[in-house]
Write a structure and sequence with these properties.
five-stranded antiparallel β-sheet; single chain; 145 residues; alpha+beta
Length: 145
């Protein structure tokens, strides 16, 4: 599962970069973590940075949530971070590293992605009318022989 972690205010990017460094240094943290620029929703560019994280299994979600909580508790900053699952856009915004916040993060990320609605089946071509029995080259039907 791929996540993006972002902030809504340019003044909070320093905290986002700090979280990035924390996750990169964490031995039990995600294997894939990188920074990228992403324009804020509704803007024409000049985007804020986001942290991208790839979690490869269910335990990785719990480990990631605990790493976030530990980072949050060790910092004085209070930027609200938004965690968004790339596959379906499910997101949760957290303002602290409380136990409730960690449970909310785990719950949001552990839910299976919403399945796309199955398309309404389209009827196939109408069956062909029954045809006359096949005939042999001499024009006599096989069952008449």
């Amino acid at each position: 599962m791929q996540l993006t972690i972002g902030v809504s205010d340019a003044d909070e990017v320093a905290e986002l970069r700090d979280l990035f460094r924390w996750l990169r240094a964490d031995e039990d943290g995600p294997d894939e973590v990188w920074l990228s620029g992403e324009p804020p929703t509704g803007s024409m560019g000049g985007g804020l940075e986001v942290v991208n994280v790839v979690l490869t299994h269910t335990m990785a979600v719990a480990n990631f949530a605990l790493a976030y909580a530990t980072w949050r508790r060790a910092r004085r900053g209070r930027a609200a971070l938004t965690f968004t699952r790339a596959s379906d856009g499910v997101s949760v915004t957290l303002e602290n590293g409380s136990d409730e916040a960690v449970r909310a993060l785990i719950a949001a990320l552990s839910e299976p992605p919403a399945a796309a609605p199955s398309p309404t089946p389209t009827p196939g071509p109408a069956p062909l009318p029954a045809s006359d029995p096949p005939t042999a080259p001499d024009g006599v039907a096989p069952e008449a022989r």
